[in-house]
Description:
Layout: H1 2-15, E1 35-45, E2 53-60, E3 63-70, E4 73-80, E5 85-90, E6 95-100, H2 101-106, H3 111-125, H4 130-138, E7 147-158, E8 161-171, E9 177-185, E10 191-200, E11 205-214, E12 229-230
Helix pairs in contact: 1-4
Amino acid sequence: MRVSVTLAVLIAGACHHRQSETSNVDVGASGQPFEYSATIIRTIEDGSDHPPTITREICSGDKRREDWTEDGHNHGVIWRPDLGKAFLLDLDQRLYVEIDLIQAANKPNNETNKENLREHDEAKNNSTDALVQMVDRAIDDSPMPDEVQTRLLRTETIDAYTCKVYERRSSLPDGHIEIVRTFRASDLAGLALKIETESEPATSKVTTLRTEVRLDVSPDAFIVPPDFKKVEKLGH
């Protein structure tokens, strides 16, 4: 997928030495409030019919929850690094799978752990971090940009939040230019309210928008409801 290569090139720049860096612009710290919730809407424009994907994310420190709908079915995932666990939720059938993160890391050959980790990966691949997961898989084989330029654009307002807008242009060996514009809200600790990813010549454009941002988070969001039944594996 072209989008994964696009993001891979840009993220790879943070992991590998660039051949040329012509920007003196400080792109700003990637941050977020200690607690917040938001709705994430991702749209893809590439000439095909792609319905927008919508995810609800909730964060409190290291705790994180994401809920989404796929094929008319409601899913969720809760990360609790403080407990060393993650929970995959079937919100319709009120079922959950518990993953021991420490055990899974220490026993990669255990079939139950492998299956749960596969479920975990599938959950993340359908959540707000889907493209990031694709980038992680593609990054090692991604071409390095010949040159990366970053500039600060005109300030814009999104949902009443003033955002600094940073544009990064990466020139690739095949002649393409990959462009990422990030809109960071200063009043939300630098949280990216909008990210636009496209290329020249134009092949696709991906827009990720955070909206309905709230700073009040209920602790119950990170707890599996007591009426959910624990199972070994979620059905499909």
